[in-house]
């Protein structure tokens, strides 16, 4: 890949923050959703980490990931209770102050007033935003996410995370889209391994993966070809189909 | 926590290896399953990473995680095709050789012979096992997983991963079990944030988390208390229930 193409590549990582995922009590639904969203808009997700609600672990992961990728999406830990430590961790990772943000307060105050609810210290916690961060709209329950530098901090509740992701997407730089071709085979992986490995060598710009599945009790295979170069992808897929046909597997 | 208790703590991380998870094409089902299994048997899952099928990334993640936790479970990348690089990466991480293992070959050979299938170089790849590793039975499709040092390498296909996890579990050291109490509230988190934070401070041996949910269109909360100390957990749960009742929220 030459340098001009490389500069079109936008990368990302996801950092899931939450004891409840690590205990198995809550099954994560955000990783797959964000992964698909990134692929769709032209961002390449390169890594995911899940860490506990421990300040040192969160800060270390944020700093490792934000140095390495164009963007870091975090989910979880921005609610009103003591175990919601994400905003403070992000401030610490960036070395900035954190306090109740007037913009966030202006969103929360009328929301609670309208519902006859007190703006308790807990609820005020949700207005704590690291200095220099921009807010991310939450059209469901108002308490905003935020973006600071290349880190995007969102709620853990899936439907709230999803509206935040939609809200922040227009602000993100996106790169060349990854195109995909999938070929389903009624044969096990072992039948095509050598040919497929040799085919990969012919097309270094196309990432080729083989995924075993079971269909009707028989081992089957899905071959997936991915590339940002549509022409190369089409060529690699056409020549692969021809090889499969000549082997009687097409 | 005193030192005698600490020595009873067994920790783990999961390393998911696979481009298909990062592209969003395949939704991971192994993290939640292994997380629940660990909790059940007395192993505390502390971290999860998902990395691409890139040797340098896999080796770096294996070495970072195996230095930090009692066990590392890896999933994915042990099939017959060129994109299955996990076994080689593990060998590299441990600095040991890797070759076709006679024990693994003795499993695969009759399996393929019986089915009239050739033991192609691709299928032979699945018998490549790092030196000094022990094998992990695969009662579904025979090609084994393996354990080397504190790293347990399993398939990515969920039902095969699950039989491997069952097969390796008797070999694992387990620690004190985490006990859990969950309390469901028909009120939003904001209503209990201060009390709950103060309650956490009274019971440092009990990890307390608050998780917002929506039930019948209304914001609700689940409070989760977790501890390896059953007595402390029972006491913390009883006093919490009393406080909730006195606030009219119980």
Keywords:
elongated, three-stranded antiparallel beta sheet, homodimer, Alpha-Beta Plaits, 250 residues, 2 domains, six-stranded mixed beta sheet, alpha/beta
- Helix fraction of chain A, binned, reads 25-40%
Structural class of chain A, please? alpha/beta
Contiguous runs where pLDDT drops below 50 for at least 5 residues of chain A: 1-6
Q: For the residues shown, what is the average pLDDT of chain A?
A: 94
- The CATH architecture term of the largest domain in chain A is 3-Layer(aba) Sandwich
The tally of helices of chain A reads 10
CATH topology of the largest domain in chain A: Molybdenum Cofactor Biosythetic Enzyme, Chain A
Q: Identify the CATH homologous superfamily of the largest domain in chain A.
A: MoaB/Mog-like domain
Q: Note the beta-strand portion of chain A.
A: 25-35%
Oligomer: homodimer
Give the total of domains of chain A: 2
Q: Which geometry of chain A do the CA atoms define?
A: elongated
CATH C-level of the largest domain in chain A: Alpha Beta
Number of β-strand runs of chain A: 11
Strand order of the largest sheet of chain A: 2-1-3-8-7-6
Give the H and E element order of chain A. Answer: HEHHEHEHEHHEEEEHEHEEH
Terminal-residue CA separation of chain A: 31 Å
- Rg of chain A: 22 Å
| Biggest β-sheet strands, sense, barrel of chain A | 6 strands, mixed
Largest interface: A-B, 69 and 69 residues
